# Entry
Amino acid sequence: MLLILSPQTSPRLDYVCHVIFERVLGLEYSITDNEEKYKAHTDFKLRYLPKSNILFENDIRRQDEDLLLQDKPALSFYLLSNYEEYLPDCPRDQHGRIVHELSFVVRHQLHKQATAQRIALEYKNLLSKQKPDFQWKGLDYHFVPTFDIDIAYAYKGKTFSHFCGALGKAILTLQWNKAKQIIKARHQQDFQDPYDVYDIEKQFCKQHQLQPIYFILTSYRTQYDRNISPCSPYFSDLVKKLKSHAIIGLHPSYHSKNQSDIIKEKNTLEEKGQVKIQSSRQHFLKVKFPDSFRNLIATGITDDYSLGFYDRIGFRNGMATPFPFFDVKENKATNLMLHPLLLMDSAAVQELGMEEKYQKGITQLIQEVKTVGGEMIALWHSNFMPLDSRQLELFKETFMRMC
# Structure
């Protein structure tokens, strides 16, 4: 049992200790402000001397970043809680997402390592000096392949009006090969849709005995929600096909802003696929703190996979292992588990390209997860890697390296 001496206790300090010591290191802990109790303790013990006061506050305000960087528990809380996204002047893009280039974790180059987990390992090394023979929790590496189905097929399953619109646009822009593809998709039963790479994905997962997770967009068409209709037989057939070897999760639509929206989409996906939905990932990785996660909790979602970068690879929260969502506004931890997303296909290509720089970046990312232990969660989109594309070959290469 680890005893931590702190000037005071708080929900924020308890949360950080739970993640660092219990979840990462597998060590039970207790917090006290009693000096005599601390001195009398004969097992592991640590003295916390705060430099930042963030762990003992109840409000939300801009923090002194220099003090955060000097205070390991405070820094961990800032990263784990996504604290800066609660601030009213947090820089956001057109989709309401935090601008990562201006975020705390990127400005201080903390995203290149699993910062919070490395802090945990520093404490482990310190505590090991107190009990050299103690058997610590192992640092396991586990690859979790995930896929977002934003657009299930390039041509199949489209409505007649969408078929006419797409064909007309192809003809008007003199894209004759595309026009032929659209017509074949409509009339040939054996047409090979370019986005239909699901058998390839299944083959790779089966080969390495991995169970993937598919997050499926289940809404009617809007500007940013462009999957085939959930009323299409192609939709139901695909979900039933995927659930034979994968976990099915919900991909809440771009415009889902409240509980009723998510419940409707969740119920539709469960009905069409005859599956039970407990996992989710936000479309466009679009999250609002704390609303998005409160909505998920209220709709019965237990695990979310949204917290990753949309424009680079790396560790957005300093973690490669799941951790519970902390609601900063309510100042309390919840039971919703957050699974860090470390790589998204389009973001990796945007940052690194597809050749030598990409290979180096992926190697460093994988090595970091193996060093600290945890889930190597990667995300691919079938519509980003159509048949016979360089992106599909990159998927195969990356998948093999992550296994």
The longest strand covers residues 141-149. The radius of gyration is 23 Å.
